[in-house]
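#structure-requests
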Amino acid sequence: EVKLVESGGGLVQPGGSLRLSCAASGFRFSDYSMCWVRQAPGKGLEWVSSIKAEGSKTYYQDSVKGRFIVSRDNAKNTLYLQMNSLKTEDSAVYYCDYVGQRGQGTQVTVSS
């Protein structure tokens, strides 16, 4: 059974940082690209970032490029998203995504 557990969200002021984690199990994590997606209140799912299986290539939505860093530790079956210089428009529930499957998400709220 595939299981994805996101953590690390919280309330942060604009300009602050958070590091999200996603613990994966139930599949061969190191064989698959992984993504982070987010959903703001009243909006649809939005792709944020992706990382190839071996971690050598990363991709970002333009609005987060230069502020977010995606990484993974295949030995720990864990995906990360380092979020810096956070803006109010980054507020959303963040999910890690494995071929369309997601966990329960972690809430990120950026507010002063």
